[in-house]
Amino acid sequence: MVQMxxxxxxxxxxxxxxxxxxxxxxxxxxMFATLLxxxxxxxxxxxISTLPLWLALMAAGVIGSGLFGFAAGMxxxxxxxxxxxxxxxxxxxxxxxxxxxxxxLTFTALLASMIGASLFGETSVAVALFTAFGIxxxxxxxxxxxxxxxxxxxxxxxxxxxxxWMGQSFTLxxxxxxxxxxxxxxxxxxxxxxxxxxxxxxxxxxxxxCALAVSGLTWLSIRRGAADWPxxxxxxxxxxxxxxxIFAWQSNRALAASNVNxxxxxxxxxxxxxxxxxxxxWMLSISQTQWAIVFSIFAVFSWALSWLAREVHDMIGQxxxxxx
Length: 324
Fold this sequence. Notes:
- This protein is mainly alpha-helical.
- The protein contains 13 helices and no strands.
- It has helices at 2-17, 20-38, 47-50, 53-78, 80-86, 99-118, 122-140, 146-159, 172-191, 200-223, 239-255, 260-285, 289-316.
- The longest helix is centred in the last third of the chain and has 28 residues, at 289-316.
- The two termini are 17 Å apart.
């Protein structure tokens, strides 16, 4: 009985290391990009369209969740010593996972994402590797300059949008992913009082860099001759704005929480739920109602997964109870 209990704790610790609710959101981003690419006639002869739909979506899910798991695992490995003092409830600092186990999980996630990308072709693997490189840079060099590090994280998330098809011309969803990622990362950085601090000058620099990145993505869309958006009912074009408003409302509520940990948890939940809500909104804007319903179901699932993750974490108890 004791052995089973320890095994369950290890399993839940592995899921916590991979940030499963957030990883599910990252998977949705790539799945949405895959569907959007399949709607484009230019991909008719490419693997992304010739693969069975279920296989293409499964590969996309593995890519997104794998890359996020790699980012989360690497972050915890590099922060292990600091977490012994400031974040003692994490899998490594609590002793629920060893460094070797965490390393194996982290690089297994990376390998899985590369295998998923290989189904879409060599170019997709190259873009996935570039995205992984951006994640590694954020986790190592970027942490010393928050403005640059958060931008790298946003670019890595936005870059995953191009893994299924590098030729994607409609880049507005990627811009939204970038902005949401940077906004969440900035708020968490300030709430958790990470060092070095994200002061006013750093925030201004980050805002300028984000604006440049969004401008670059917009230029790419124009250069590639993206079709006029939306191509469905004009009033449904407002749907993505509603998704942004929901995220802003959730984030504002999170900042009003009574303590730091609750605020951070609420911000992470908002970030986990945003991708499927945004994907559903984009699908509505191009009159793909059936897929909008599917992604709405994903949003409910993401919310339930976030709630379950919190409850399981509370049930496991204090970190020190599981040492040894």
